[in-house]
Here is the input.
Amino acid sequence: MVNRLAALAPRRRRSDAHGWWFLAPYLVLLLVFGLLPTGYAIYDSFVVDSAATAGSSLGTGNYQNVFADFRFLPALAHVGMFLLLWLPPMVIGVLFFALLLHDRVSRVTGAMRLIFFLPGAVTGSASVLLWYCMLQPSLSPFAPMLKAMGLTSDAEVFQDGNLTLIFAIMAFTTGVGQWIVIMYGALQNISDEVLEAAALDGCGPVRRALLIKLPMVTKYVLYMVILSFAAGVQIFVEPQLIYQITRSAGSPWWSLNQFGYALAFQSGDFGGAATVSVILLAISTLAALLLIFRTDFFSTEMDR
Here is the structure.
């Protein structure tokens, strides 16, 4: 037995070495484009320029200035409301359509996956321009419906009170399709024997979805929530472009990311911009850690 284990040791070391070779490119990219910029932003957020001494020193002055800025709390509130309006419907919508596709496999399933994915192909600035035309009463094919709702001009549609909902709809349509495809792929990994056994036990489609399939793809759902939350906290393109197009809807600091952009490129306050980026990083990291450590995200079959 001892001789057998000794013979396996060199093979295991070679396997570990191969794993590190595969991992090395990712670690290099993580260091160059992730850890080093993050470290520099954290350092820059603590560098305080002093007009009195015409120099700089380390301190928390940038954080005090950002938190005291009149634009910070409104931007934080806008992002929080946007996440409430967008994230729960997106998670529920993705799971509903993915489970529906998986339960009703037919010849049209592939076509439906393509139809769901297509809106996600139009992202970023193109999506914002598309939705602006769709909601502009003088351009939209849905103008009669908008007029029936009392919306006859872009000023009535793009009011400050409507912006959060409009941005949530834009983000939903561009993000839901790709996650449906990913979640459908996760559901494909569930063994047919498990589903057949559940059906033989009298488990109907709804109970199979809620009690069998959903628990088996929980980690994929958590992964989707973590990435979507981080993306939502950093919302930038939608409010920035809508403000530039309308010049009246929203503001140049509607979101936290816009606030940081305004500090850097309108005020020249790069220390303040770095502080905002560190705050965004802290919010996303804390939310991710909360989900990871309150669930069995990293547990394996060996741990159970």
Q: What stands out?
A: The radius of gyration is 25 Å. The beta strands are 47-50, 55-58. The longest strand covers residues 47-50. The chain has 14 helices and two strands.
